[in-house]
Every structure is written in C-alpha cells, then in structure tokens.
Amino acid sequence: MTKTQTLVCTATLIVGLGMGCDRTPADEQERAVEAQQEANDKIGEARQEANQKIAEAREEANQDVRAAREDAVDEKRDNDRAGLDREPSRVGVDVDNDGVIDREGTAADRDNDGLIERDREPVRGTEAAAKNEQHEDIAAAKKELAEDKAEAQQEANETIADVKEEIAEDRRELREWSENEMRELDTEITELSNAAQTADPTVQRRMETSLNQLRTQREALMKDVNTIDRKPAGQLDSFKNRLEARFEQLDKRVETLRDSMK
To answer: Distance between CA 50 and CA 38 in Å, rounded?
Structure first.
C-alpha cells in the first residue's frame, strides 16, 4: 500500500482512549500512523531499488545487443575485405545483371546496419540470451520487491494490531468507569426521591422539580457516555475530561439538594 495508496492505506484508524498506560490516545494513534509511514518509506525505497535494478537489466541487455550488432558489422566488413583481396579478378561469377556479387545479398536482405540474413544468426543468439537474462533479472527484482513490501507491511500490521488491542482495553476501562459513575448517580437520585416523599408538600414539589431537572441532565450525560465506542482517539482525552467535569457537577447538585432537605 503505491506509497500514496499504501499511505491512504491505514492512516485512518478509529482508536480510543488510553487510560491504563503512559501513552495517550493521540500517542497510540500516532504510533500506528508512524508504523505505517515507516512501512511506506521502506516500500518506497524497495520499489526505487527494484526500478533501478530493472532499468540496469534492460540497459545491460541493450548494450549486449548493440555490441553483438557492432561485432557482426565489423566481422562482415572484415570478411568482405578479405574476400575482395582474395578474388580481385573474379568477374562473371555469382554476378547478377547489375554486376553485384551475390554473396552480398540483395537490398531486401539488409537492414540499416548493413547485415544480411546469414550475418544475423550470431546477433539473434545474443539478443535471445540478453533478453532471457533481462527477464530473469527483472523477475528477481520484482520478487525481492514483493518480499520487501510484505515484510515491511507485516511489521506495520503487527504494530497497528498492538495499538488496536491496547486501545480496545483502554476504551473498555473508560466505559466501565463511566457506567459505574452513572450507577452511583442513579443511586443518589433514587435516595433523594425517596427522602422527598417524607417531606412536607412544599418541599416535595420543589424537590420534584429539581429532581426532574437532574434526571434530564443525567439522560443527556448518558447519551454522551454511549458514544465512547464511536469517539476517535484524538478527541477522547478532552471527552474524558468533559465527562469527569459533568459527573462532578451533577454530584455537587445532588449534595446541594440533599443539604436543602435537612
């Protein structure tokens, strides 16, 4: 995961709050992102190295082919000169209507380098060998790249899995803490309601109004508690602080109502 794809590919983590360790949720999320970034960097380096090896393999094959063509041209030129030196007076032998010796081949037999069909055999062999070697080198480079990518991503996946496991535990602890705070608040509200039943009617009416307001605040707080599993890591530190402040506020409200009945 290309680099952008691979980067794309994992940075969007939904992680939660770290309560039982030194790292904050943002720290945990950053640890996962850094692990993926490191994997992406390694993959990018491996891809660059593989591309370099592939380019070198192709260039080496091209050089071998060019050298083979040049050698064939040089050999043909030397052979032609040697043939002319040996047969300077050979006229009318292997000659066509325009007086060109047939061993040179026809124009249709030649390409831009001047080689005729029989001169091409050594070149073809070199081309085939160079292409085979090129294909082997490219295949080896691609295989190495795939292995490097798999290894780098596996390391990142292990770190990300560890982060998710830590976060799941931290989120569970926050949820249990919030639910316990909510149970204690419910107990206090019930006790206040029971105590109000024995008070005089004026106090009962005042307490009922206050308790209804307290229950409304409690319901709003409970809705926020129920969002713990959906909160991204970057927001949960401040979210936990808000929960603590609101529980403390409701506890103080309960104490105030309790004192008002004495």
So the answer is: 18
Reported confidence tier of residue 78, pLDDT bands at 50, 70, 90: confident
Same domain assignment for residues 176 and 142:
no
**DSSP-assigned letter for residue 93:** S
Radius of gyration of the chain (CA): 42
Q: How many domains does the chain have?
A: 2
CB half-sphere exposure, 137, CA atoms < 13 A: 19
The torsion region of residue 15 among left (phi > 0), alpha (psi -120 to 50) and beta comes to beta
**Residue 70 vs residues 75, 123, 242: alpha-carbon distances, Å:** 8, 9, 80
What is the rounded CA–CA span in Å between residue 188 and residue 72? 101
Sorting pLDDT into bands at 50, 70 and 90, what band is 121? low
Task: Report pTM.
Answer: 0.55
Q: Could you tell me the residue range of the domain that residue 32 belongs to?
A: 3-166
CA distance linking residue 117 with residue 136, whole number of Å: 29
pLDDT digits (tens, 9 = 90+) for 200-211: 888 888 999 999
Nearest residue to 165 via CA among 6, 33, 18, 8: 18
- Is 181's pLDDT higher than 90? yes
Residues 147 and 192 in one domain: no
CA distance 14 to 167: 10
For residue 94, the model assigns a pLDDT of: 41
